[in-house]
Design brief:
Helices cover about 10% and strands about 55% of the residues. It is mostly beta strands and about 140 residues long. Strands 4, 5, 6, 7, 8, 9 and 10 form a seven-stranded mixed β-sheet that branches. Strands 1-12-11 form a three-stranded antiparallel β-sheet, with no helix packed on it. A two-stranded antiparallel sheet has the order 2-3. Strand 8 and strand 9 form a beta hairpin.
């Protein structure tokens, strides 16, 4: 059997979960910090690695920071556990580390969502990921 080798290691991070009445700190999850850039604008934020998500989905606030006209993107209807959601497709650059940067299609929601997600298209299909939840570790290897 071939052993897998991973170039990058990250720690799980706690994230805030917002309910209608309060903001709660969730236990640490496989969340990484990402740099996003579009045109000449750039920002950083945290995103949950979500193997159940087909797309990478980010909040409207990130699009606003980058100067992206959300509604100008190609509309996509997403079916989630919480119901149906309309999001808009845009291409931008994502940076996981200073040496791991590439173009990615991201869906931005018209309305707020609880967290940013890194899904299969554009993220999990470009990197090998291993999670060791017991130890709160994320291992990542580029497969671009």
């Amino acid at each position: 059997m071939r052993a897998l080798e991973f170039e990058y290691q990250f720690n799980y991070r706690p994230i805030f979960l917002e309910t209608r009445s309060q903001k709660l700190l969730a236990p640490p999850l496989p969340v990484i910090e990402v740099a996003l850039s579009y045109d000449r604008a750039a920002t950083t934020d945290f995103a949950l690695i979500d193997s159940g998500s087909t797309f990478s989905v980010f909040t409207r606030e990130i699009a606003d920071e980058l100067g992206i006209e959300v509604l100008a993107g190609r509309a996509q209807r997403l079916n989630t556990l919480g119901g149906s959601l309309l999001a808009y497709d845009h291409e931008l650059e994502i940076g996981i580390t200073s040496s791991l940067r590439y173009a990615i299609e991201v869906l931005f929601t018209e309305y707020p969502i609880p967290r940013n997600l890194l899904g299969h298209n554009g993220f999990l299909d470009r990197v090998a990921v291993a999670l060791r939840s017991k130890f709160g570790l994320i291992y990542l290897q580029p497969e671009i």
